Amino acid sequence: MDWVALEKKYFMSTVVRAPLTIVKGAGSYVWDEQGRSYLDFVAGWAVNALGHCHPAVVTAVQQQVAELIQTSNHYYTLPQLKLAELLVENSCLDKIFLGNSGAEASEGAVKLARRYGKLHLNGAYEVVTVTGSFHGRTLAMVSASGQQKYQQPYTPLPSGFINVEFNNLEAIKQATTGTVCAVMLEPVQGEGGVNVPSPEYLKGVRRWCDEKGLVLIFDEIQTGIGRTGTLFAYQSYDVEPDIMTLAKGLGGGLPIGAIMAKDKYSVFTAGEHGSTFGGNPVTCAAAYATVKYVIENDISRNALDMGRYLTERLMRLKEKHPNMIAGVRGKGLLIAVQLNGDIAGALAKRCLENGLLVNNVKPDALRLMPALNITQQEIDEAIEKLNTAIVRLGSSDQG
Question: Matching CDD domains, A to Z (predicted)?
């Protein structure tokens, strides 16, 4: 079967796919239709927090799908309530709304902040965001995201967002007017290239929001559920948000998103927000199993330790290939390898040929986001494969 031809016949051309058809996954590995294995350092774009088909998630889904698949949110369901309790009791937030994706969570968070602005900030509605940010693919979230490449095809964009320079507190202060109700940030920018703010930046933004009465929204869609070395990234910065969004790793592979908020900012009333599939029993069961496993087995700590180990190995690789690797940055197991030149696509292709999946997040940067329960042995294997890919790419350039 020519799967590539089938995709071209039936799918809209919205993504440039790698020449790989994955048919099976287990832990940190996937297999193609010919039985070849690959070490996966993309993990579904940071979705497969516990790797592929983790037994805790598989068992939870199998049990739930045999009992109850879907109801409307007109009724209570146990998986939804158990997940809500687990997330609230292990965070600084008080209330939750469950949706289906990160974009949906971001949309809902902005709606919640604007509702708060209407009720308590004299109708203020604008949200300050920053360059390099990414908050989703809906039209409003494209407008919120600080990346013109996503915005240009859809102009004119919805209003209500002010985009300022990343890691620049003064820029946020200057953008704050009487019509601003909130600031929305990623604690670490993922899609923007794994950009880590300075230690005092988020604390400064928190102080500014407190001073001006603004809502602070943390987009933890990619950083939440242990990815950066703590259950939520805000914990490692010692800065609490007023509203937080989650998705990606939350469901352990199944699609789910969440908006969490402190009581003061939980201003939705009946009918002001909703979702048909949000809080689906099967996805909630998967999410509950994932988060429970992460907490009980201190997977966040493994992400911290293995992130440090991976960074060390990458820095040694940089010393070995200074002409190819310019630097390494990241937090926990969200890491970028900065390259010398726009060679990320070519290097990712070489990695694929060598049995390693990586993400060319920018033309000159690779993003690594493996399963949070990755082992040292698997990291060593990945470094060997990456080293081979670098050598092969360098040889082809010279040829």
Answer: OAT_like (cd00610)
Catalytic residue, chosen from 40, 161, 219, 242, is 219
Residue 219 annotated to the active site = yes
Distances (CA, A) of 11 to 5, 153, 254, 382: 10, 19, 22, 32
Q: Is 94 annotated as a binding residue?
A: no
Confirm or deny that 396 is annotated as ligand binding.
Answer: no
pLDDT of residue 25: 98
| Whether the predicted pLDDT of 73 surpasses 90 | yes
222 annotated as ligand-binding:
yes
Amino acid at 388: T
Spatial CB neighbours of 216, under 8 Å, sequence gap ≥ 6: 182, 183, 185, 205, 206, 209, 241, 242, 243
Question: Using CA atoms, how far apart are residues 219 and 188, in angstroms rounded to an integer?
Answer: 9
Q: Is the Cβ–Cβ distance between 241 and 268 less than 8 Å?
A: no
| Ordered domains of the chain (ranges, CATH) | 1-39 (no CATH), 55-296 (3.40.640.10)
With b for 16 or more beta-carbon neighbours within 10 A and e for fewer, the 158-183 pattern comes to eeebbbbebbbbebbeebbeeebbbb
- Statement: the pTM of the whole predicted model exceeds 0.90: yes
Encode pLDDT of 312-322 as tens digits.
999 999 999 99
Contact predicate 256/100, CB 8 Å? yes
Task: Confirm or deny that 232 is annotated as ligand binding.
Answer: no
Residue 57 confidence (pLDDT) above 60: yes
Q: Is 82 a catalytic residue?
A: no
Verify whether residue 94 is a known catalytic residue.
Answer: no
Confidence label for 397 from pLDDT (cuts 50, 70 and 90)? low
Checking if the pLDDT of 365 tops 50, the result is yes
Q: Which residues on adjacent β-strands are paired with residue 195?
A: 189
What tens digit of pLDDT does each residue of 162-172 get?
999 999 999 99
Residue 352 burial (C-beta neighbours within 10 Å; 0-12, 13-18, 19+): middle
Mean pLDDT of the chain: 96
DSSP state of 242: S
Residue 376's CB is within 10 A of a number of other CB atoms, namely 12
* Given the residues 134, 161, 166, 232, the one annotated as active site: 134
Q: How far is CA 61 from CA 48, 68, 372, in A?
A: 15, 10, 20
Give the helix/strand (H/E) hosting 335: strand 334-339
**Residue 399 clears pLDDT 90, i.e. is over it:** no
Among 348, 360, 359, 339, smallest CA distance to 385 is for: 348
